[in-house]
Every structure is written in C-alpha cells, then in structure tokens.
TrEMBL record, chain A:
Pfam families: Peripla_BP_6. CDD domains: PBP1_ABC_RPA1789-like. Belongs to the leucine-binding protein family. It comes from Rhodocyclus tenuis (Rhodospirillum tenue). Residues 27-374 form the Leucine-binding protein domain. Residues 1-24 form the signal peptide. The keyword Nucleotidyltransferase does not apply. This is Branched-chain amino acid transport system substrate-binding protein. InterPro entries: BCAA_transport, Leu-bd, Peripla_BP_I.
From TrEMBL, chain B:
This is Branched-chain amino acid transport system permease protein. It comes from Rhodocyclus tenuis (Rhodospirillum tenue). Belongs to the binding-protein-dependent transport system permease family. LivHM subfamily. GO terms for biological process: amino acid transport. It is found in: Cell membrane. InterPro entries: ABC_transp_permease (IPR001851), BCAA_transport_permease (IPR052157). Keywords: Amino-acid transport, Cell membrane, Membrane, Transmembrane, Transmembrane helix, Transport. CDD domains: TM_PBP1_LivH_like (cd06582).
Amino acid sequence: MSKQIQAKKLVLALCAALAAGAAAADINVGVTLSATGPAASLGIPEKNTIALLPTTIGRQKVNYIVLDDATDTTAAVKNMRKFVAENKVDVVIGSTTAPNSLAMIDIAAESETPMISMAGSAIVVEPLDAKRRWVFKSAQNDAHMATAIVEHMLDSKVQTVAFIGFADAYGEGWFKEFARIAEARKIRVVASERYQRNDTSVTGQVLKTIAARPDAVLIGAAGTPAALPQKTLKEKGYKGAIYQTHGVANNEFLRVGGKDVEGALLPVGPLVVAAQLPDSAPSKKVALDYIAKYEAANGKGSVSSFGGHAWDAGLLLGAAIPQALKKAQPGSREFRVALRDAIEGVKNLPAAHGVFNLSAQDHQGFDQRARVMARVEGGKWILVK
Amino acid sequence: MDLQIALLLGQDGITNGAIYALLSLALVLVFTVTRVIFIPQGEFVAFGALTLASLQAGKLPGTLWLLIALAIAAAAVDIVCALRDGQAQRIPKVLAVNCALPAALAALLSIVPAASLPLALQVVLTLALVVPLGPLLYRLVFQPIAEASVLVLLIVSVSVHVTLSGLALYFFGAEGSRTPAFTDATFEIGDALIQGQTLLVVCASFTLIAALYFFFERTLWGKALRATAMNRTGARLMGISATSAGKLSFSLAALIGAFSGVLISPITTIYYDSGFLIGLKGFVGAIFGGMASYPLAAAGAILVGLLESYSSFWASAYKEVIVFTLIIPVLVWRSLTTRHTEEEE
C-alpha cells in the first residue's frame, strides 16, 4: 500500500517536473513598435493587433512581450537588446518604421534572432546580405506601391507629374523609388517639393508645383499630414489628378481631409477594400477575418491598414513555428535557426495584405496581388477596377 | 515668381507670422515677469485647437480631466499650506477658488451636448477649459521654485513641455484635427484671392495685441505686471504680490496660446505635438526683442512668418534650416548692440 502511494507520488512529481519543463520552453516573441511619437498612428493599431494574435501555436504557449520604442531608433535598439539579453526571445516582431528596423538588424544578426519588420521601405530586407539573412518584412515594399501608381498614371495618359513629400526618410524614399520607375516609363517629374509633418502651411510648395503645370501630383506623405497639400492644391485651384501613397490609408485621413480629399487615388493593400474584392482574391477571407476580430475588440470602423502588417507577421509565425518545433525546443539557438529557415520557406500563405512566397532571395515575399488602386469617394475607399 | 505668387506667399507669411507674434508676446510676458522661458507655450495652442475639435466631434475632451486633476492638486497644496499656517478657516475659500470652475465645467459638459452649441459658445467653452491650466501650472510647478535660477526654471519648463505633449497624445491621439472655418467668405483684391478666415486671423491677432497694449498701459493689473517685470523686489515693496503677478502672466500666456490654437485650427491641421514648433518660431521672434521688447518681438515673429513662406517656395527642403539659422545673426547683432537686457523694459 505504502509503496503504491510512493509510486503515485513519484509519478505526480515527474508530471510536475515535465509541466514545469514545458512552461520554461514557452515561445517568447519580443514586439517593439512605435506606439508613441511621430509614427504613433501606425504603431497603435499594430499594438492592438498583437493583442489578437494566437497565444498558442502548435500546442506551444506563446508569450508576447510588447515594448514601445516611441519612434526613436535608440529606444528600438535598447528594446532589442533587452529582448535578446533578458527575455531570451525566439523571434522579434518590429519595428514600425524603417529607421528603427534598420538599427535593430545588427543585434538580430549578432544574436542570431529572426526579426519581422513592419516597415514599408525595401532597404530593411535589401540587399539580402549576411546580416539581413535574419530579417524579414511583412509590409509591402514601397516599390510595389510605386509601380501601381505609375501603371495607373500610364493608363490615364499622365505625362508630367509633380511630387510633394515629407522632408524625411518616408518622403525621400518615395521620391527616389517613384522617380526611378516613372522616368523609366517616360513620365516626366517636373517638380519636387518637401514639407514637414507639422507644417501649418504648404502654400509656397503648392504654388511652385502649380506653376510647373503637371498633369498629376503625387503626395508622398503618411497619415493626416498628407491632407494639407491636397487641401491647399484644391484651394489654389489645381484641377489635375492627385495621387496619395498607401501611408494615408486610415480613417483619420478621411476625417481630417473631408471633402477636400475626394477623388484622391492611391495604392492600398487588399485589406483596405477587402469587402469589395472579388471572392477569388486570395486575401479576401483572411482580411475579412482580421477586420472582424479587430473591430470586435476595438469598435466598429476602427481597423486600419497598418494593423494588418502586425497580423501578417503573426500569420508568418503561425506558419513557421510548427515547422521549427519539429526540429528543436524553443529557447535554444537551434530553435531560432530552425525558425529562421522555416520563415524563409513559407510558400503560398494568404495574408491580409497579399500572398507570402518567401525565399532565400526575397525576405518580403509579396507580388502584385499585394496592392490594388483605390479612390476616395463619398468619404470611403472605393476599389478602382 | 510673378506678382500674384509673391502676394499669395506674403499673405500666407503674414497669417502665420501673426500667430507667431501672439506667441512671442506671451513668451516675452512670461519671461519678464517670472524669468521662466516658457517652452510649453506652444502646448496651449495644441490644447486649444484639439479641445475645440473634440468638443465639435461630440467627445469629452481630456483637457477636462487634466483641469480637474490639477485643480484638486492645487487645492490640496493650498490646504496643506493653510493648515501649516494654522488658518483652517481659509480652507472653504481655497476650495472655492480652485475647484468651482472645473466642477462647473464638468457639470455643464455632462448636461449640455457641446457638439450642438453655436461655434462662439464652443470657443468660449474651450477657452474656459484651457486657460485655467496656465495659473494652475504656475501654482503647482513654478511658484514653489520662483526664486530658482533661470536655468533651473528652463529645465523645469522643458519637463512641463514633455509632460503636456505626452498627455496631449494620450487625450487626443496621434492623428491631427481640423475645425470648420469661422467664415467661408472670400475676397478678391486684384489678382489675389483672400480667404475670410485668413483675414480673421490677422485681424484677431492685431486686436489682441492692441488689447494687450491697453491692458499694460491703462489698467492697474497691467501696470503691476510691468512693475514686476522691471524690478521684482521693488514691486514687492510697493505691495504687488509676485505670486499673483506670476499667476496672471501665466493666465494671459495660456489665453493667448489657446486663442491662437482656436484661430489657426480651421486653416491647418493641428497635431498633439504641433505646438512645440509653432512655439519655437514664436521664440525666435521673442529673441529678436531680446526677450524684453514687445514691439520688436512681434516684428521679429512676422519676419519669421514671411521668411518661412518665401523659403518654402524657393527651397522647401531647407525651410526650417533657413528659419532657425536666422537666430544666429540676430543673436550676434543683439550681443553687439546691447550691454545687458535684464533690467530693461
């Protein structure tokens, strides 16, 4: 009798030890994003989305450690160091902006931790060198979006175009990308002006733009600040087409812009116009599912394009982690290596913003299915067929 | 550049310059009376504009909570002081002075739907919400260290700025807001089309400047402020309380800031952190006046506005560089022509 009890105790102790062992091997995901500072309008929906990501993947518990980097590169690096040294994370999601993500790459490579950035600029994953081997990106490259704009301009017989953009990495990146593609397709860029996100007036830039008499104007800005040049263009009597970038695809832009941004054309991820997509579009189901989850948690009409990038990063992990678990236990270097290989091997994964087809040459993985053209009509985003 | 473009740019520059001028006056006022270089001046612009916008959107502005919290804190500090002096009978008065307005505003906002009020009343409500923040901040932050050095006051003022802009992000969100124009009228003068709102900004700014002039020249309170600015100790000996002078100057600064915010929010989008840059340009104007002269500060601010407007046409990428580089020749000029500005008017 007493032996039986002892045996039972032993089994119980073993079970407890096993359970403790399993708990220690939870998958830890470090998330750093810009929930405050200039990129806060992108970082906040991303943060809300992280809260919706699955907490178990492949029967393994997943812990998300979310830190804010205040759109500050130094803080992003600090967060990254903390993830690697203290939290012993298996993978990092972040950050929101390209400068922050670029600053984190060194640590990702040095500690051999895969990271998935949500920034737009292609330089985060290109050129794919030894360091960037560890870096992936869930958001479309600017070039994806710029080609969509140029194609639309060609279709509408635009020959000359003017550019008004942010005097920062976003504006410069867009101008370079756009000018390169446009010149190659024989569209002439006749003016290139800059303004600050916080500027109270862009009259000077707009007057100079109008004086150059372009067929169309592209505004290379993100969020609500992109409404000001368009408002001023209308006010000063500009009649040509006005293009915006996908950086404005949130409802706040429509609220601030009001009737002045009607008719604006922009490339967007499928998520933004998910309900209007044909049923055959691969992203439709994923996007609608994400929108339903996000709006259930944050209120109707609250979803924005940017949160979708965090969701897509989560989908990448959801596809890759089960593969990596077959090879190694979380918390080890082997697991991080296996996870990196598994993410690189993701094929035909429909996401809210496109279809992932990653490879050793492409750590972003989207194709032309990752963008559609939309127009602002009646205060809504309408799919341009 | 033809004449029409030059006129449009000039109009734009004067509109922005008028706002900078108002802020530079507030900065000079606060500095001369309390020796505080008031970095958070711009925050009042953002709070004014965004409070009005959230009232119009039918939301309860976070400013109300900030006001209530500051009022309770100020009342608590005053009560502790009163008890320490053994004057418990002062407590009801302290409570009434500090908490009556916030309580009234809270009651009003919970009963009346602010979104349906006429614009003028919304503006009054906004000013009532934002302006008391000025004296409350003075009571809580600057009054206890009123005798500290200019450098300490500056550092504290930077920390107030960081706190306020963080709170603004929390209250109003990262995206900007705009309010509908006061008037849709437009006037055609020659070739140039002038927006009614632009004219309104310029007129209102100059009216306010004239009112300030009248206040300082003709009223007892204004003269008391001037006396404090000229000689703190001397003014104290004449029975002018440095504390009430400080509170009054902060109230005026908050009023000017909030009013500027209300004025420009129909013209441009205001973000939670817009105020800092606007305030900084006002500061460049104030430097023109050596932080002491009102007319020079106003003239400098208008010049900043014009320079900004024309440089945005010629070299938009370097606009801020051009505007802020202006400060260097001005500082050289001032340090060569003036010996010591501290005791001057």
